[in-house]
Amino acid sequence: MAKNKITVVGAGNVGATTAHIAAERQLGEIVLLDIVKGLAEGKALDIAEAAPVELYDSNITGTCDWEKTANSDIVIITSGLPRKPGMSRDDLLAKNVRIVKEVSTNAAKYSPDSIIIVVCNPLDAMVYTAAKVTGFEKNKIMGMAGALDSARFSYFLASELNVSAEDIKCVLMGGHGDDMVPLPRFTSIGGIPITELLEEEKVNELIERTRKGGIEIVNLLGYSAYYAPAAGAVKMAQAILKDKKTVLSCCAYCEDEYSVNGYYVGVPAILGAKGVEKVIELNLNKDELAQFVESLGHVKNLVKKVDELL
């Protein structure tokens, strides 16, 4: 039986960590690609040499050659400029549109049957860019944001309540930015709603920290996070490759759902072998819906700017 093939585009912090986690989980053949000669090759070799210690036998190669990525099942796009202190995700728009346009063109050329997971920022706009450039079916293009934001919210909740993060299930919606919409009403610990365990003021404090989670790390490191984003991307790839029907928040195409009318935005969805197999529609209350509409408006504005750049 043929092994799955995963291409990770970009051998920087996010890309290399994504390749490493995917190798540890033995998800298939992994190709790490970067335009900088020697970077992907060196990091792939380093990951491969860790295999005897960590006991995995994934085949991983590094390259600058798109032909070696041919017939990938999953293409994870991490290439793009990272944030630096003082920058918003939106500040990256013009430069990353050019990068994602080129990468998506090659992904469509060499792996026309692949499913694409976009990781670079501004996330929702980059997913739209990849979708427009490739012309792929809408269920085969998605963005890793909700998995990361949910992980951050879960970690903050676990730390506050001194419980296992494994017991926490979160739902977040909206764009991947400062106006993302964590939903406390749909977030639980061992099945218990967090609204039963924390005061509203504390919940709101943790929500705000989640919204600012990316810049908190940028301000500490001087560049963007990569361990958690990589883990989120691999979780999505695993759900697809193993047809797990995993329910998680991600950037997915919505038409009638939530009256979005044709945009890629963060929503809870089921991921399986076909990609985004279903967007789950929650019965949002008035306040939740208002927050989602506001966040969606930001996404729409970014998409307009992308259209001007493409």
For this entry, give a set of tags:
single chain, 310 residues, alpha/beta, Rossmann fold, L-2-Hydroxyisocaproate Dehydrogenase, Chain A, domain 2, 2 domains, six-stranded parallel beta sheet, three-stranded antiparallel beta sheet, 10 helices, 14 strands
Describe the model.
There is one protein chain. The protein has 310 residues and is an alpha/beta fold. It has two domains: 5-143, Rossmann fold, CATH 3.40.50; 146-309, Lactate dehydrogenase/glycoside hydrolase, family 4, C-terminal (L-2-Hydroxyisocaproate Dehydrogenase, Chain A, domain 2, Alpha-Beta Complex), CATH 3.90.110.10. Helix content is 43%, strand content 19%. The chain is built from ten helices and 14 strands. It has helices spanning 13-24, 39-49, 51-54, 93-110, 123-134, 146-161, 200-211, 213-221, 227-241, 286-309, and strands spanning 5-9, 29-33, 60-63, 74-77, 115-118, 141-143, 168-169, 172-173, 181-182, 188-189, 192-193, 246-254, 263-272, 275-279. A six-stranded parallel sheet has the order 3-2-1-4-5-6, sandwiched between helices. It has a three-stranded antiparallel sheet with strand order 7-10-11, covered by helices on one side. It has a three-stranded antiparallel sheet with strand order 12-13-14. The model has no long low-confidence stretch (mean pLDDT 94).
